């Protein structure tokens, strides 16, 4: 059973790594700022996946009892948790174009330091005394669960109530899928945090199975699928799609020509040199396209075109 879990966790880490790669390809290919912050979410999950894989590996090959292995495991776990407390709220705000002010930065940094300090202190006590270990374990797990649950709940609420701030419609759909999957898996994620206590009190042993790893696996697959679908739709620019876009927004021939160059990744000066007109004229065409299509900048123009090109 543990061999199967170890293989599955390795697969999850590989898929997670590819999902981050696809997110960064999306970011640089389509100049999407929000894709970068979404990739930060995926990176935090990847680190968790690596830690879980390492823990399962050490248990399978019976090296988890070595002091050095324990130190490495808990060091990475606490560093990861400290990063999560700050980075998830930060990414949530940036993802939906919501300011992350000094007060919030200070609060989450302080919360990160306090919670991690408490967990380190609890771990030292658990390792150094023989009495009331179960109670200490229960308290530390509860603090860990409440802190992480609060951060996730805060982020879900922040994103869910401010989706309208996202300028990239296609990425908005990806984030909505992320919200649905997270809400679906929430009860199982709670079980993960209290698996040892459940095993002691209710005699239900999940044998190192982590629902959070399956959740991360599913999230990575959805992310790869969404990025791939968007990317494949942008490889070609058929004339019928250009024509439909032109007819829908009443664009002129010259505006369509500028749009074609924007889709190919040309800059203002490159387009101006190719069409033998001034850069200011190109900026004027881009401004008119923005007005007609209801977009704010060249990135949102490209995203809107690709979004409406997906069948």
Secondary structure layout:
Layout: H1 2-29, H2 33-60, H3 67-95, H4 102-128, H5 133-160, H6 169-193, H7 195-202, H8 211-235, H9 239-249, H10 253-263, H11 268-275, H12 279-293, H13 298-309
Structure description:
- The protein is mainly α and 311 residues long.
- It starts with a helix and ends with a helix.
- The chain is built from 13 helices and no strands.
- It has two domains: 2-235, Rhopdopsin 7-helix transmembrane proteins, CATH 1.20.1070; 239-309, Winged helix-like DNA-binding domain superfamily/Winged helix DNA-binding domain (Arc Repressor Mutant, subunit A), CATH 1.10.10.
- It has helices at 2-29, 33-60, 67-95, 102-128, 133-160, 169-193, 195-202, 211-235, 239-249, 253-263, 268-275, 279-293, 298-309.
Rg, nearest Å: 24 Å
The biggest beta sheet reads: none
- Assigned CATH class of the largest domain: Mainly Alpha
Tell me the CATH architecture of the largest domain: Up-down Bundle
Number of helices: 13
Q: Decide which structural class fits the backbone.
A: mainly alpha
Seen as an oligomer or otherwise, the chain set is: single chain
